[in-house]
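Regression test case RT-17, inverse folding.

Input:
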């Protein structure tokens, strides 16, 4: 769920901006809904985490196409057996192996990584929509409160 502290900070920024016009001689530029949404998208930890998950999933798609690494092994047996070399000779092995995938395993691995990337992108889109909804609601609440406050002030005779 979207962090309420972020949307509360957005509401406070709107309220302070709106109230600041009454205190200052020159009103600051208006804080629009687009400003609030942009700020929330830039500063939200959840949105940053979602962007990082999408980037990692896209990188995993590229990495899934790589061949597995070869394995090099150097092994010696009967080194410290305590038995004469004429009875139990020293054995030394050097091996290099490379896995060759058959039966479409590489393509399946890449398809799975692409599906994971799609899921991460969809989750990020859902998070962005929830964030936008929360910020828009809080922004409109702040505007309603400002307008209610303005309408309840006594008017000065001029």
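Golden output:
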């Amino acid at each position: 769920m979207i962090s309420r502290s972020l949307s509360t900070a957005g509401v406070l920024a709107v309220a302070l901006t709106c109230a600041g016009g009454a205190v200052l001689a020159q009103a600051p530029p208006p804080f629009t809904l687009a400003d609030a949404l942009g700020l929330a998208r830039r500063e939200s930890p959840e949105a940053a985490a979602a962007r990082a998950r999408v980037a990692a999933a896209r990188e995993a798609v590229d990495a899934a196409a790589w061949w597995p690494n070869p394995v090099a092994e150097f092994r010696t047996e009967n080194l410290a057996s305590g038995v004469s070399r004429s009875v139990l000779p020293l054995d030394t092995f050097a091996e290099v192996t490379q896995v060759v995938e058959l039966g479409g395993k590489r393509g399946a691995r890449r398809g799975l990584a692409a599906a994971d990337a799609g899921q991460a992108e969809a989750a990020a889109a859902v998070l962005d929509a929830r964030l936008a909804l929360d910020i828009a609601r809080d922004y409109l609440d702040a505007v309603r409160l400002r307008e209610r406050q303005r309408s309840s002030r006594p008017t000065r005779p001029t």
